[in-house]
């Protein structure tokens, strides 16, 4: 018959020191738990049960129980993720007296202290946190002994030191196969075997019940040393934990930190590089290959990232309202202070948010690609930070340029203005295409006489015309609508990369 005991430690720790071992010199800790400790605990709890029942203890019953234990062969199933905890050291009070003890020195009366070291083993908090005792003995156990064993086990509340709260019960259902056995010789157990104190088959009740002060300091009478090889622990591997994201957001804000502030004229370099790095990260998440590019990605992967790139699997721009992600910049006193990742239609999914935040954790260069180029650090802003004006749903009639407006078409030909392609006409036409009310009646006013030369976004397919396109003139514009309108308003060339941003202003 095989007896199976299931032992758990509710606090996740087993505090014990092997027999006759100094805690300060204990290299292993008692693991697996000692069968000698278990048989002594059962003997003590049998006496407790006899006192609670109010009957005279029958020595034969206890002796038969202990004899069955001593004649059994022990093996264990130990949690494979258990590990020895870092030892704790504590000072305990002892005798009360003068300190210092010399009469010629001034002193105070207080307790002496004694340093003690607490060694323990930690157990995992998952379902695999039980120690299984497997006792093999064919003819020593019967039903009456099993009932007596159950009464003793249910009274064991701690095991080892008093802080090792435990529960032990007899359980033969779903017992796992042993992963730790006991051998007589260390070499037979294997390299790294640990000594374990086990009761001998001829141990008597008197030997088991002796107090520790009367026992042999090395091996107590009735006990023997056997050797156990602990199960190998799997290599530790970090479990990636994805940060919880806001599933219903289409605006993510980042504060811009710098040593040298990026100039407003070159903010498109910053947003273009940020967008490119996010697309590369998102392609790696969707495909499982961190080195993949859009041109080498499959059609399914391209379709999965089209809301971020703004183009379908064939490379054509998405039709209909603006469905792609835009990378906008908010400025304070003429300096960029925030990057806004915004999309008008669908909110960002989990993979898109993971790609955005992972890319933002790295510094971005805005002045060049060399290691010494000026860089910025993006700091995520949580939902407690309100969206900037224009993104909060507040309407306004008057809107002014926050970043320079660059006309998408040339409004000069041979140095002469083209009435059809004037700045006013292009703005009204674009406002009408975006569905703004009163677009044909909007008042367009240029603020200031000078135009700024700003960098615009050059699509990858137009790189060969870089010298022809170059930087473009940007204007500061004030728009006055006949009726209040909602934002955000971003117009002109590179409006998805931070140029042409407008902010609402008071009519006064």
Q: What does this entry look like structurally?
A:
The structure is a single chain. Helix content is 21%, strand content 27%. It is of the alpha+beta class. It has three domains: 2-86 and 118-228, Alpha-Beta Plaits (2-Layer Sandwich), CATH 3.30.70; 243-360, no CATH class; 389-508, Alpha-Beta Plaits, CATH 3.30.70. Strand 5 (88-99) and strand 6 form a beta hairpin. Helix 6 (267-287) packs across helix 9 (350-360).
Instruction: Round the Cα radius of gyration to an integer and report it.
Output: 39 Å
**Strand segment count:** 26
Mean pLDDT: 82
What is the correct CATH architecture of the largest domain? 2-Layer Sandwich
Layout: helices, strands, pairs:
Elements: E1 2-8, E2 13-15, H1 35-53, H2 59-70, E3 73-77, E4 83-84, E5 88-99, E6 108-118, E7 120-122, E8 131-136, H3 143-153, E9 167-170, E10 180-183, H4 186-189, E11 194-199, H5 205-208, E12 223-228, E13 251-258, H6 267-287, H7 299-304, H8 306-309, E14 326-332, E15 335-342, H9 350-360, E16 364-365, E17 375-380, E18 396-401, E19 412-413, E20 416-417, H10 423-433, E21 443-446, E22 452-454, H11 466-469, E23 472-474, E24 477-485, E25 489-490, E26 501-505
Antiparallel strand pairs: 1-8, 1-9, 2-7, 3-8, 3-10, 4-7, 5-6, 10-12, 11-12, 13-15, 13-17, 14-15, 16-17, 18-24, 18-26, 19-20, 21-24, 22-23, 25-26
């Amino acid at each position: 018959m095989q007896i199976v005991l299931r032992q758990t430690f509710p606090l996740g720790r087993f505090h014990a020191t092997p027999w006759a071992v100094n805690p300060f010199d204990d290299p292993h800790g008692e693991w697996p738990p000692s069968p000698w400790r278990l048989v002594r605990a059962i003997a003590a709890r049998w006496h407790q049960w006899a006192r609670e029942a109010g009957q005279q203890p029958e020595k034969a019953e206890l002796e038969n129980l202990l004899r069955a234990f001593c004649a059994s062969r022990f093996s264990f199933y130990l949690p494979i993720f258990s590990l020895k905890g870092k030892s704790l050291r504590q000072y305990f009070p002892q005798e009360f007296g003068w300190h210092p003890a010399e009469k010629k020195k001034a002193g105070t009366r207080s307790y002496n202290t004694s340093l003690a070291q607490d060694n323990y083993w930690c157990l995992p908090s998952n379902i695999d946190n039980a120690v299984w005792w497997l006792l093999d003995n064919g003819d020593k156990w019967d039903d009456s002994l099993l009932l007596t064993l159950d009464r003793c086990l249910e009274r064991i509340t701690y095991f080892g030191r008093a802080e090792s709260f435990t529960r032990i019960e007899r359980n033969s259902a779903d017992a796992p196969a042993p992963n730790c056995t006991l051998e007589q010789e260390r070499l037979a157990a294997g390299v790294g075997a640990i000594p374990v104190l086990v009761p001998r088959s001829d141990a008597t009740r008197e030997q088991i019940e002796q107090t520790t002060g009367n026992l042999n300091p090395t091996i107590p009478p009735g006990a023997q040393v056997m050797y156990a090889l602990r199960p190998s622990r799997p290599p530790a591997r970090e479990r990636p934990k994805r940060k919880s994201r806001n599933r219903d957001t289409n605006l993510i804000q980042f504060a811009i930190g710098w040593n040298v502030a990026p100039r407003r004229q070159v903010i498109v370099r910053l947003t273009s590089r940020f967008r490119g790095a996010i697309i590369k990260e998102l392609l790696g998440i969707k495909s499982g290959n961190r080195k993949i590019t859009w041109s080498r990605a499959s059609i399914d992967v391209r379709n999965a990232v089209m809301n971020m790139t703004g183009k379908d699997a064939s490379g054509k721009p998405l039709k209909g309202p603006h469905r792609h992600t835009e990378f906008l910049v908010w400025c304070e006193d003429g300096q960029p202070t925030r990057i806004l990742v915004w999309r008008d239609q669908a909110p960002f999914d989990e993979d898109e948010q993971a790609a955005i935040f992972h890319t933002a954790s790295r510094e971005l260069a805005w002045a060049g690609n060399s290691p010494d180029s000026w860089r910025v650090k993006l700091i995520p802003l949580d939902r407690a930070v309100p969206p900037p004006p224009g993104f909060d749903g507040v309407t306004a009639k008057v809107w002014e340029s926050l970043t320079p407006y660059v006309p998408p078409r040339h409004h000069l030909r041979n140095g002469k203005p083209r009435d059809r392609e004037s700045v006013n006409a292009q703005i009204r036409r674009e406002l009408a295409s975006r569905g703004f009310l009163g677009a044909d009646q909007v008042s367009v006013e240029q603020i200031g006489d000078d135009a700024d030369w700003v960098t615009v976004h050059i699509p990858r397919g137009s790189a060969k015309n870089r010298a022809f396109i170059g930087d473009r003139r940007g204007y500061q514009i004030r728009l006055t609508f006949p009726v209040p309108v909602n934002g955000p308003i971003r117009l002109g060339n590179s409006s998805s990369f931070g140029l042409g941003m407008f902010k609402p202003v008071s009519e006064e």
